Amino acid sequence: MSFDSLGLNADILRAVAEQGYREPTPIQRQAIPVVLAGRDLLASAQTGTGKTAGFTLPLLQRLSEKPAARGRRPVRALILTPTRELAAQVGENVREYSQYLNMRSLVVFGGVSINPQMMKLRGGVDVLVATPGRLLDLAHQNAVDLSQVEILVLDEADRMLDMGFIHDIRRVLAKLPAKRQNLLFSATFSDEIKTLAEKLLTNPEQVEVARRNTASEQVSQQVHFVDKKRKRELLSLMIGRDNWQQVLVFTRTKHGANHLAEQLNKDGITAAAIHGNKSQGARTRALADFKSGSIRVLVATDIAARGLDIEELPHVVNYELPNVAEDYVHRIGRTGRAAATGAALSLVCVDEHKLLRDIERLLKREIPRIALEGFEPDPSIKAEPIQNGRQQQSRGQGQGRGQGRGQSGSGARPQGGSGQRPQGGSGARPQGEARRQGGNGQAAPAANSGRRRPAVKKSGNV
């Protein structure tokens, strides 16, 4: 099947072809006709399946079929994303695919000055890509009118719920017209997402491309048991020995990410950290340097588990296992995207054995073990409770308004709000770096990125 057979117009097809895409992915084949028909949609797809084009292409077509009235352009399509990085990448897709259409788009998120965003909105925008917190800030200042939105997209809706955005989503929905088309995209169909869909969507078409909570079959997975204090030594050795040139490494905390990046640089391996305490500029530069090959290792917290699109990323390393088993799937989903293959390595110390069992229970299989001579774990070392990064921090301490609304970028879960059972040895519910610190930031049809909680009324209130 080609894109021509999906009913898209010539201007959109030309833009898609210029991006180098010829055949739609499964999620695109199923979602695009549904959106073009004006139906509400509940779609689940694994990351890297081309999800973004699955809604941006038909959205642009629908808007172009009925041009806006003359005068100031109202916001006709609103795309909500949980993080800055995902917002930026979705916005880039919209610009690429609409380059031959008479269409204006804008991306707004926190962490940067609000004034330029207000000025651009004043000039009129057809498609607005936004994170919930910054959108509400703009609405509070009467800088954006959402009363004429025709199409609403909730991208990575389950992650937005995980990050505590449900109240912000309610406020946004209250500002939208009751009659509109709703598209809800999620990595998984959790019970919370199904509850949300039942209240938000009207007679939706349901599309599910990947099995629930499955890791990409294109990713080879391995576990290496190693003492916690020797993880960095082992990682440096493997990167050097096997000449890994592009490695995305996940840590559990922001401090851990900074420390590991510093240590790798001392080992002669160029590395940078990306997490919620980094400025937007620093995060953008680090990602650009990683993509260009200027640095070999990008050390990230779970901000990067969703929304980062890096073509043909060969290696993902779990330097520390995530507290929530499902996050493992999203982490390793950064590699093995589209038609590419990749490798995921987890360095597991004695503290993390329970987390590994939870992950393998989710995957319904054991992850193959490897062992490097000289790095065998010391059997005399006993397991200790896992520090999650917030235990010494009072709730909300040091957070500004934008951070509290998910603008800063950690991708952390709200304390006690994930709906998951405790995964670590601490006995606490999963905790991220800071409560609801989002980030903000997908790519083109064949390689886009693609993550739960209560309710929304059809009238526009969650």
TrEMBL record:
Organism this protein belongs to: Pantoea wallisii
PANTHER family per UniProt: ATP-DEPENDENT RNA HELICASE RHLE (PTHR47959:SF13), ATP-DEPENDENT RNA HELICASE RHLE-RELATED (PTHR47959)
All copies of domain Helicase C-terminal, residue ranges: 218-378
Catalytic activity of the protein: ATP + H2O = ADP + phosphate + H(+)
Start and end residues of each Helicase ATP-binding domain: 32-207
GO molecular function, one term: RNA helicase activity
Lineage: Bacteria, Pseudomonadati, Pseudomonadota, Gammaproteobacteria, Enterobacterales
Name assigned to this protein: ATP-dependent RNA helicase RhlE
Keywords in alphabetical order: ATP-binding, Cytoplasm, Helicase, Hydrolase, Nucleotide-binding, Ribosome biogenesis
Residues of the DEAD-box RNA helicase Q domain: 1-29
Summary of the function given for this chain in its UniProt record: DEAD-box RNA helicase involved in ribosome assembly. Has RNA-dependent ATPase activity and unwinds double-stranded RNA.
Bias (Gly residues): 397-427
Stretches the record annotates as Disordered: 376-462
Sequence motif Q motif, location on chain: 1-29
Classification via SMART domains: DEXDc (SM00487), HELICc (SM00490)
Subcellular location(s) of the protein: Cytoplasm
Enzyme Commission designation: 3.6.4.13
Gene Ontology CC annotations of this record: cytosol
Entry annotated with the keyword Hydrolase: yes
GO terms of biological process kind: response to temperature stimulus; ribosome assembly
Superkingdom in the source lineage: Bacteria
Family: Belongs to the DEAD box helicase family. RhlE subfamily.
Main subcellular location: cytoplasm
Matching InterPro entries: DEAD/DEAH_box_helicase_dom, DEAD/DEAH_RhlB, DEAD_box_RNA_helicase, DEAD_helicase_RhlE, Helicase_ATP-bd, Helicase_C-like, P-loop_NTPase, RNA-helicase_DEAD-box_CS
